[in-house]
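Write out this protein's structure.
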Amino acid sequence: MPEPHLQPLEERITWLQRHVVEQDKAMLELGDELARLREEMKAMRERLSGLDEGAGPKPSRRTSAALLKRRAEIQNPKLETKRKIRI
């Protein structure tokens, strides 16, 4: 029979063990995401180096800003954007 004064300690140990497992899972997920982002960054650098070598014209700042804005709209459709309606 467990001693009553040890029960809070046992509960705390159980909670801490569960917390460690959750942290381990989160760290594995972050490691996977970091690896994916590194691969994506590598691909972007390769594409940019192709542009620098004359593979095509560099986009203007205005075009780049518009593309970034559109990407944000696609990734987060809840963002409200002001669009002009032509009549």
